[in-house]
């Protein structure tokens, strides 16, 4: 009993320790609210499908199910954490890439705190999103509602696509995999990372964009930090609501608005694009980067700010496409945070 009481007293003393006496990275967060919401979507009707007899649980009697009717579809989920005293002027929306979900930002595959925690500690209210048809947003019957069928990422596809190693370096046997010598991705946790993979569609950009636009209308003014496929959704959300989206940070975005898009509304919306390593010999990523640089040029030509954080150019080698999971993810987050400070996005 004495040991238990002593431990309890020590714990209480630790909690009572003045914040100034604790290392900054270990200070407890003062949270005002944790919650979630769904936005966007529509009601769809399905007709003409045959009834089915289904046993939902072992030992339960069969039940005839009519798959026809009205269904809530195309909504998007977001989880928020709001601080008691945020330093940021506006909340930060974190949007993930293709075949992924908001888990991208929560915890790295090797168990380190993710960018959700990094930006909370930097003073932001943070919204982590699951795009329409991903994660907790759920998906609808296909092809009746979602055109086409889902795409599933194999364990080896991302090895080369995400520039962890050469495309032919993937092997089912972990000991036989070849990563780039300087890679910063935690390669021992690759299988753990692939547990995050979820089905995605390539026919739903319109619906995904509509859901992000609905989120902007619901919670903004805000800053958007987007990744990969989420890049174009962030760029377009800013175009659609330049008075509400106060800045866009695009981490290795894979798409951008067309050359015919008018960037003039973005004169007061600063943009930052972040790139990792191993692009020089990768034609796929070179083509993507050229498209993004074209869009940055359009923003600058319209009088706006469109800057680039190129990690190799900064003298930092080895970053993969999944920069927020690399072993220097905190350093990259700090550089992004410094940019936000310079843009006047903090109090």
From TrEMBL:
Residues 1-23 form the signal peptide. Keywords: Signal. The keyword Phosphoprotein does not apply. This is Esterase. It comes from Falsiroseomonas tokyonensis.
